[in-house]
């Protein structure tokens, strides 16, 4: 028997990183308890959670006496420990590319993340036009996806991977806000968004 799993997420259910782990657990068909953390009330800094989560961030996954934060570390752990739908490509180079893409999405493209936060995806769109910096970031994003996504492909690396979810959310910051996105990339994001595990997160009561 595996130890029961708890997943600590933001109380607004708007974190793209919490969504990534939530989707991963559902893809693996793992039962888990989801525990909301009110970031606005600084619950992640409170002694209980800060002692549990090394980086004091959500998502944090707890399995028995093991606690792990940082979403890509969690999804890699889940993929290595649990059977079921693979979260990463089997090919070493494709897996490295998927991890590269995840790291880039999490560390770059800041103007998009600032001007099109996930609130525009899960709550309401923004009427403010994209700044020049955000437009430049969007071009970098589009160029990367055009280079990675094969023609007529539904997924980046043949079979679905968790990197598809992370990328679709980044694109949907723009698509669902009504910003201009190349049709092929918008269609890719729309297909990924309809995946049942993704829709479970989208349809959470907020």
Provide an overview of this structure:
With 206 residues, the chain is α+β, with helices and mostly antiparallel strands. The chain has a 4-stranded mixed sheet, covered by helices on one side. Helix 1 packs across helix 10 and helix 4 runs parallel beside helix 8.
Average pLDDT, all residues: 95
Beta-strand proportion: 5-15%
Overall body shape: globular
Distance between the first and last residues' Cα: 33 Å
Q: For this entry, what is the oligomeric state of its chains?
A: single chain
* Helical run tally: 10
Strand order of the largest sheet: 2-1-3-4
H/E element sequence: EHEHEEHHHHHHHH
**What gyration radius follows from the Cα positions, in whole Å?**
17 Å
Low-confidence stretches: none
Helix-residue proportion: 40-55%
Number of strands: 4
- Which secondary-structure class do the elements indicate? alpha+beta
Biggest sheet details: 4 strands, mixed
């Amino acid at each position: 028997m595996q130890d029961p799993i708890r997943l600590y997420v933001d109380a607004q259910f708007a974190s793209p990183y919490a969504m990534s782990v939530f989707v991963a657990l559902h893809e693996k068909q793992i039962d888990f308890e989801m525990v909301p953390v009110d970031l606005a009330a600084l619950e992640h800094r409170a002694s209980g959670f800060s002692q549990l989560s090394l980086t004091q961030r959500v998502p944090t996954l707890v399995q028995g006496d093991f606690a792990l934060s940082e979403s890509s570390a969690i999804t890699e752990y889940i993929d290595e420990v649990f059977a079921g739908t693979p979260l990463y490509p089997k090919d070493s180079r494709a897996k490295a590319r998927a991890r590269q893409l995840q790291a880039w999405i999490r560390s770059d493209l800041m103007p998009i993340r600032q001007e099109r936060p996930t609130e525009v995806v899960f709550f309401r769109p923004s009427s403010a036009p994209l700044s020049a910096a955000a437009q430049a970031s969007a071009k970098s994003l589009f160029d990367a996806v055009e280079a990675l996504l094969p023609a007529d492909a539904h997924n980046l690396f043949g079979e679905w991977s968790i990197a598809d979810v992370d990328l679709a959310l980044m694109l949907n910051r723009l698509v669902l806000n009504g910003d201009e996105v190349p049709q092929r990339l918008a269609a890719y994001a729309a297909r990924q968004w309809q995946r049942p595990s993704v829709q479970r997160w989208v349809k959470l009561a907020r």
